[in-house]
Amino acid sequence: MDILQLIDRLEELFNDGKPIPFTHNVAVDEDRMLDIIDQMRIAIPEEVKKAQQLLSQRDRVMAQAQEEANRTLDLAREKADGLIKKDGIVQEAQRRADQVLSQARADAEATRHEADDYVFDTLDRLQVELERSLNQVRNGMRALEEERMRRVVPVPSNPDSAPSESQSEEK
Fold first, then answer.
1. What confidence score (pLDDT) does residue 171 get?
2. ∠ CA 16-18-20 to the nearest 5 degrees?
3. Rg of the chain over all Cα atoms, to the nearest angstrom
4. Residue ranges of the domains in the chain?
5. Please, are residues 51 and 122 in contact by the beta-carbon 8 Å criterion?
C-alpha cells in the first residue's frame, strides 16, 4: 500500500477518535493504529526502493548522455579529420568541430543537471512525506502515552492518613 494512503488512514483513525473531555487528546483504537503503523513500516522500504530506482534511472540517463556525447565527439573528430584533408577549409573545419564539441558538452551537462534536479526533487518530496508521517506517528504515540499516564491512579502509602468517605460525611 502506498505510504500516503497509510498516512491518510492514520489521520482518519485520529479523526474518528473519541475526544477526551477538557484536553486536546483523543482516544483511538490501539489495534487499528498499530496495524497501520506496521503497514507503514512495510511501505517505507518500498518508498526507499523507489528512490533507489530513481537514482539508478538517473545513472542510466547520465551514462546514455555520456555515450551520446562521446559518439558526437567521435563524429565531430571524424568530420574534422575529413575537412582537414581538404585544402582551403581547414580553419572552417576546426571551428565547426569545436562548435559541435561545445554543443555536445553543453547538451550532456544539461542532461546531467536535469537528471540531478529530478532526483533531488523526488527525494526531497519523499523526505517531507516521511517526516510528516514520522511526526504523526510520534504525536499519536505521545497522545497514547499521556492517556496511559492519566489512567494510572496513585495509591496512598498510608491508608490511615487518608479520610474514608464515611469519616468525611460524618464531619
1. 46
2. 145
3. 33
4. 3-148
5. yes
